[in-house]
Amino acid sequence: MNPPATVYPVKPAFAAETRITRDEYQRLYAQSLQQPDVFWGKVAERLDWMKAPTRIKDTSFELKDFRIRWFDDGELNASVNCLDRHLETRGDKTALIFEPDSPDAPAQRISYRELHERVCKLANALRALGVGKGDRVTIYLPMIPEAAIAMLACARIGAVHMVVFGGFAANSIADRVSDSGSKLIITADEGLRAGRKVALKANVDAALKLPGTNSVETVLVVRHTRAAVDMQMPRDRWYDAVVDDQPAQCEPERMNAEDPLFILYTSGSTGKPKGVLHTTGGYLVYVSYTHEAVFDLREDDVYWCTADVGWVTGHSYIVYGPLANGATALVFEGVPTWPDASRFWQVIDKHRVTIFYTAPTAIRALMREGEGPVAATSRKSLRLLGTVGEPINPEAWRWYYEVVGNSRCPIVDTWWQTENGGILISALPGATDLKPGSATLPFFGVQPAIVDTHGKRIEAEGEGNLVILDSWPGQMRTVYGDHQRFIDTYFRTYPGTYFTGDGCRRDADGYYWITGRVDDVINVSGHRIGTAEVESALVSHDKVAEAAVVGFPHDIKGQGIYAYVTLIAGEQPSEALRAELVKHVRAEIGPIAAPDHLQWAPGLPKTRSGKIMRRILRKIAENAPDQLGDTSTLADPSVVDSLVQERRVP
Ligand code: ATP
Ligand code: MG
């Protein structure tokens, strides 16, 4: 069922100059498992500690003896590691490049020195407003430099930040504010996305009228678009009015390695978001090391991760990882398709971006528009590409590789979760041969295993549920306010292991292929079929831009396959095309995977972070539109209505 994948060997240019060669990967990986204290103790030296840790790893996934503690007698401050320690050698280096929503608005470059100053001023202002160590602060901002500044200012004074994605509305803000018990909110008058205004301050006002939000004492408002907004004194304060006159130095709080750094709610693909809590030392060691190793970071790189700071990717790989490493990171306010589908590639040329990290949803959306918008740009500064968020269909991988990267740049397909803090499975560009659609091999210290539904370990080649056998430093420590939910969700299903919730196949070379979420696996006549595989077969047809596949109850087979298909721009649906696509899947995978029903979908329901929500599509396929569950994290609820109306009766 799985023909051998094409292999893309390590590029000679990377093999020659890389930080981590193939041999080093193998040697260090073995050491990281055999002597975790030695390995991680050494890696931890990359940070500046106020008190260096003497205890390194103290973890157990056994329920009777459960604990996750890393570097737990160490003390440090995350903002000092991201700012102060660079001032001497990199004070004038650009820390952040800000590219606004509109290509006509001027870009900004913020040096490490300036960033340090701006963070210190806000940190002083927060202290003056009564925020201290352990207090929670909600950040609800557009993708502007103040988002990173706010996170680092919280870290400086030991406050726990909780970022809410700027695309969420009042209800979602209120839920998260209430769950986290935030004392202060940092927001802006308005956000800008694709030329449209987003009423951030008004959303906060509406949220604070909802029950459970009484903990909020102050709302700081950044003047971004300078729109007139309703200011309710004394609760609401203009950011510049309280920040500008603060001293440019701020004494950082000494934090224990296991003190909380932030809370972040998961994207909600499978249900109600969970308040994932990350701590300071292990998280920062892990994100800075993975960022350097996976992206093979060099001093002069211009690094661009297109995620929003509202997601964990934005936390780990726009703010904490890159800044801890003294890198130059680009912050982009806009969207990939506005003013046109060339926008990403133009930004790459404009700022000479060398490393570009994005999501399959963006790649598929841009692929839908054809090669023209890409070909109109040079992209010759690029040397490495990355992807995260969903399985990347091999077809989209090849387009990314050949068209965007001109077959010059390796692609690191990075598998990880909000819960993980940082990347767990990924190629290292100088060490790992690539296979399109595979996240390839585990990072140092990460021990993936595949188990069947009874928890029996599948060795060598095989498919099943992906678990991780032992802790890594970036692992979440609890679900905020609900430690039992943490244990029950991740450590009870397959005792003694961390259960990821994802399905996975390991091939003969030991490469990992994420097959989709376990809840989404379809069981057709006793055959377990991963959604990712059928979707990739559909997307490999040249008229298909995107596909989502779910199971529905089937009298004979147990479950049948229901496919939703979005065509590329300009293609028209027809019965002939429908038959052709079913035949195509049959030919690509086998008759067992042929969709029983195929519905045209002008759009698919996605989370705000761009992930397909198959749980909702399953309910539509089952004809249970009244049981859609929590839809608050959907990007565009109207997509669902039209799919319900057009449903094909199985
Ligand atoms: P929730 O947990 O609330 O349902 P979510 O799982 O979408 O939301 P995230 O933590 O943002 O929240 O996403 C992690 C999930 O994304 C992984 O479990 C996996 O299903 C998917 N994923 C991320 N990166 C990859 C990748 N490179 N390849 C395949 N799948 C990926
Ligand atoms: Mg998840």
Small molecules in complex: adenosine-5'-triphosphate, magnesium ion
Please give the number of β-strands: 31
Cα-based radius of gyration, to the nearest Å: 24 Å
Total count of helical runs of at least 4 residues: 21
Structural class: alpha/beta
What ranges have pLDDT less than 50 throughout 5 or more consecutive residues? none
Bin the strand percentage. Answer: 15-25%
The helix content is 25-40%
Strands side by side in the biggest sheet: 12-11-8-6-7-14-15-24
Mean pLDDT: 95
The largest pleated sheet is described as: 8 strands, mixed
End-to-end CA span: 26 Å
Shape: globular
Describe the structure.
Belongs to the ATP-dependent AMP-binding enzyme family. Its EC number is 6.2.1.1. It catalyses: acetate + ATP + CoA = acetyl-CoA + AMP + diphosphate. ATP binds at residues 389-391, 413-418, 502, 517, 528. It is a single chain. With 650 residues, this protein is of the alpha/beta class. The chain has 21 helices and 31 strands. The longest helix is centred in the first third of the chain and has 17 residues, at 112-128. It starts with 11 loop residues before the first helix and ends in a 5-residue tail after the last helix. The site of magnesium ion (MG) has 4 residues, from loops.
